């Protein structure tokens, strides 16, 4: 989604006689997200307003309503709560929990790759939320950093459940298209457009790789090369990209991103069990995931406050920052004309090699030092053994002369 947009014609409108549309947070190919207010309960909400072209598609509206109800029944701290859904004029909309903070994409842009214990802290709630959905027969289909929200209190939640499936079954969507975000699609999604819980597992595996290394695994000169590489090539171990990644995380990524769905974790619950085993084996410390400091949501709150102080019903957001993120949209694209997406944008690259204000080298120094100490001890033992053997041989060959 594109953030830091100018004001929208919907700003100031009241949906369904209840939900006031305040400042625009972000826009994408299918929808826009606004900060809003539930005037009946006097609580802030997030309003996801779909493009008007979906309003006339009864199949979409039926699926949209069904998916919203299914997600609203899910109860897990790792899921963004869905409060309501409806259609106002030409705009279907969702009313969701407003997570004050930012996205995982914004955090990666600010702080770069994460050490293993921070990755585990992100994965636990993500897998917990996915496991709750998978157990209810729901599949997300579009796991990516943009859809992982981090609150100012350190809570991590998944957003946008059900929307991809609703759009995929709409009449305006051709059966010859793939729906999703190219960098995170599973091989079966690229090949057939179909997926299940193991497709979500694959996307989480790509996410883990990106959290550890700061980039997604596949690059290419053409759109087709990027999209179809995952069908012919395995994801490389993260440790081949960045030093200090434990073997256990390499194995986690390789299992989750197997090209054959049967070789992956069956669902998020099984992957979560393996993560807990890794946390115990590596004795990873607890970690509170920090919210990004410069997020679209925070900026929308500031803009909304300024606008209200000026008694202006139109919210004017700042122009896009040229150095700001260009987030990946959920896209509908044909298999013959996939978007150019090498899985990694230059602006996401971390040149500082830091996370949470700490040099990444500090996280791996103890590991490297222990390896050096072990090496020197092995050399010393071998040297002493060689000297002892040489002395014994010399003594043995000269024993008769000594006697």
From TrEMBL:
Keyword presence, Nucleotide-binding: yes
Cellular-component GO terms for this entry: plasma membrane
Broad EC category: transferase
Entry's EC annotation: 2.7.11.1
Membrane topology of this protein: Single-pass membrane protein
Keywords noted in UniProt: ATP-binding, Cell membrane, Kinase, Membrane, Nucleotide-binding, Phosphoprotein, Serine/threonine-protein kinase, Transferase, Transmembrane, Transmembrane helix
Main location: membrane
Alphabetical list of InterPro entries matching this protein: Kinase-like_dom_sf (IPR011009), Prot_kinase_dom (IPR000719), Ser/Thr_kinase_AS (IPR008271)
GO molecular function: ATP binding; protein serine/threonine kinase activity
UniProt feature, compositional bias: Polar residues: 296-308
Pfam family, one: Pkinase
GO BP annotations, alphabetical order: negative regulation of fatty acid biosynthetic process
Subcellular location: Cell membrane
Bias (Basic and acidic residues) ranges: 309-321
UniProt keyword annotation of Transmembrane present: yes
Superkingdom to which the source organism belongs: Bacteria
SMART domains (alphabetical): S_TKc
Catalytic activity: L-threonyl-[protein] + ATP = O-phospho-L-threonyl-[protein] + ADP + H(+); L-seryl-[protein] + ATP = O-phospho-L-seryl-[protein] + ADP + H(+)
PANTHER family in alphabetical order: MITOGEN-ACTIVATED PROTEIN KINASE KINASE KINASE 20-RELATED, SERINE_THREONINE-PROTEIN KINASE YBDM-RELATED
Protein name: non-specific serine/threonine protein kinase
Organism: Mycolicibacterium vanbaalenii (strain DSM 7251 / JCM 13017 / BCRC 16820 / KCTC 9966 / NRRL B-24157 / PYR-1) (Mycobacterium vanbaalenii)
């Amino acid at each position: 989604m594109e953030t830091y947009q100018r004001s929208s014609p919907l700003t100031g409108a009241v949906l369904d006689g209840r939900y006031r549309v305040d400042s625009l947070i972000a826009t994408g190919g299918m929808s826009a997200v606004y900060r809003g207010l539930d005037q009946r309960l006097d609580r802030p909400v997030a309003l996801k307003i779909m493009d008007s072209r979906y309003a006339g598609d009864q199949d979409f509206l039926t699926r949209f309503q069904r998916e919203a109800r299914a997600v609203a029944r899910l109860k897990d701290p790792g899921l963004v709560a869905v409060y309501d859904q409806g259609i106002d004029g030409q705009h279907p909309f969702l009313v969701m929990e407003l997570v004050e903070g930012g996205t995982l994409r914004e955090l990666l842009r600010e702080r770069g790759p994460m050490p293993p214990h921070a990755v585990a802290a992100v994965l636990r709630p993500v897998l917990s939320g996915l496991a709750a959905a998978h157990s209810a027969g729901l599949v997300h289909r579009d796991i990516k950093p943009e859809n992982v929200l981090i609150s100012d209190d350190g809570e991590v939640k998944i957003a946008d459940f059900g929307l991809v499936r609703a759009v995929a079954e709409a009449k305006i969507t051709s059966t010859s298209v793939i729906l999703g975000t190219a960098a995170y699609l599973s091989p079966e999604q690229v090949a057939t457009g179909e997926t299940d819980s193991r497709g979500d597992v694959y996307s989480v595996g790509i996410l883990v790789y990106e959290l550890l290394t700061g980039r997604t695994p596949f690059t290419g000169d053409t759109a087709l090369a990027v999209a179809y590489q995952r069908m012919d090539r395995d994801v490389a171990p993260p440790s081949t990209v960045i030093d200090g990644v434990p073997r256990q995380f390499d194995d986690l990524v390789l299992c989750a991103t197997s090209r054959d769905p049967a070789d992956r974790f069956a669902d998020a619950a099984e992957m979560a069990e393996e993560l807990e085993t890794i946390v115990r084996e590596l004795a990873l410390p607890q970690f509170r995931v920090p919210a990004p400091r410069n997020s679209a949501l925070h900026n929308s709150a500031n803009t909304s406050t300024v606008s209200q102080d000026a008694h202006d019903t139109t919210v004017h957001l700042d122009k896009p920052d040229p150095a700001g993120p260009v987030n990946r949209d959920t896209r509908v694209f044909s298999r013959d004309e996939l978007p150019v997406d090498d899985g990694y944008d230059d602006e996401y690259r971390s040149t500082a090699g830091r996370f949470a204000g700490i040099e990444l080298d500090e996280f791996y120094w103890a590991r490297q030092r222990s390896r050096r100490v072990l090496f020197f001890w092995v050399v010393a033992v071998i040297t002493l053994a060689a000297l002892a053997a040489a002395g014994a041989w010399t003594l043995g060959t000269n024993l008769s002369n000594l006697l």
